[in-house]
């Protein structure tokens, strides 16, 4: 799309600092419904029509939720840019100032306005799933901490003297486990409420080695497979796609994965690949064959990671469950 103007937005907990790139006007509004309504009137008072304006801002978690919802309701074009992308576009900077940051975000958006694809209207179901999965992860960490402490204490202290301490921690572990199950049930209910999400989950789970945790994470990360053009883009995003490492005639390193990645998803994919090697006959046979001829173990595992991602995207593209060809061999 050909946007005539870009408005950069720097979002914090209580306020948003904005910059109209063409007019070079700055202002600040409260990060609330009333503040966003005033911001909208401020934008409309400028020379350009709303449909010709691209709003650009960073993803700041819950603080950017309100403005995303607002811009979606107003049918505005907006682009949620990766924070690192904006930071690197600024060059060498010193200090921190919200007004200047808004100007830099506006400049970043204006330079790339012909290349940027506006972020698609956000899904309330995906947002809800993100929150549920995030809370679940926190509870799992808390439970692990209690379990670790309790195990150590039982090995060191006498049960009689520390009985109450043990009992309280055991009750906490039981309670947290119960809450985790409640969240898991709610996650499934949210997915079932949307036919598209339900279908995606069914297709992903048809692949051996991929479980509920990975399937849900994939749906969230890809916004139900609308955020990435193909599986290779997603493999790059989660740090399993190999890249060349060479320069001139002296530097000729082997291909390796980048550290700029979503490490949480990378860990999940690694766990899925290990499960696939154990329980998926095709993957197991492939892994063993490569190891026998002397191929690197981690390199082989990384290939399996990529194979799993490719299969997940393939079943979604075809809208048919995965067919295990080994059954017919």
TrEMBL record:
InterPro entries: Transp_IS110-like_N (IPR002525), Transpos_IS110 (IPR047650), Transposase_20 (IPR003346)
The Transposase IS116/IS110/IS902 C-terminal domain, residue ranges: 202-288
One of the GO BP terms on file: DNA transposition
Positions of the Transposase IS110-like N-terminal domain: 7-150
GO molecular function: DNA binding; transposase activity
Protein name: Transposase
Taxonomic lineage of the native organism: Bacteria, Pseudomonadati, Bacteroidota, Flavobacteriia, Flavobacteriales
């Amino acid at each position: 799309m050909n946007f005539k103007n870009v408005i950069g937005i720097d979002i914090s907990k209580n306020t948003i600092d904005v910059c109209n790139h063409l007019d070079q006007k700055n202002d600040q509004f409260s990060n609330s419904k009333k503040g966003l309504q005033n911001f909208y009137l401020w934008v409309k008072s400028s020379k350009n029509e709303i449909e010709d304006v691209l709003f650009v801002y960073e993803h700041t978690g819950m603080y950017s939720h309100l403005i995303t919802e607002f811009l979606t309701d107003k049918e505005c074009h907006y682009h949620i840019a990766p924070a690192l992308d904006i930071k690197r576009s600024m060059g060498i900077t010193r200090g921190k100032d919200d007004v200047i940051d808004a100007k830099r975000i506006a400049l970043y958006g204006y330079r790339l306005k012909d290349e940027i694809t506006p972020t698609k209207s956000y899904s309330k179901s995906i947002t809800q799933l993100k929150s549920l999965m995030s809370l679940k992860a926190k509870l799992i960490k808390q439970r692990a901490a209690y379990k670790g402490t309790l195990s150590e204490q039982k090995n060191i202290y006498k049960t009689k003297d520390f009985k109450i301490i043990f009992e309280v921690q055991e009750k906490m572990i039981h309670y947290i486990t119960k809450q985790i199950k409640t969240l898991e049930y709610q996650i499934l209910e949210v997915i079932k409420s949307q036919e598209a999400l339900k279908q995606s989950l069914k297709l992903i789970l048809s692949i051996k080695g991929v479980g509920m945790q990975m399937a849900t994470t994939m749906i969230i990360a890809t916004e139900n497979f609308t955020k990435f053009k193909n599986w290779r883009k997603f493999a790059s995003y989660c740090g399993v796609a190999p890249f060349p490492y060479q320069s001139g005639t002296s530097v000729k390193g082997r291909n390796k994965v980048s550290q700029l990645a979503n490490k949480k998803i990378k860990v999940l994919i690694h766990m899925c690949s290990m499960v696939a090697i154990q329980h998926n006959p095709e993957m197991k046979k492939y892994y063993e064959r490569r190891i026998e001829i002397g191929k690197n173990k981690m390199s082989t595992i990384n290939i399996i990671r990529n194979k799993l991602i490719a299969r997940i995207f393939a079943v979604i593209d075809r809208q048919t469950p995965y067919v295990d060809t080994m059954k017919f061999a």
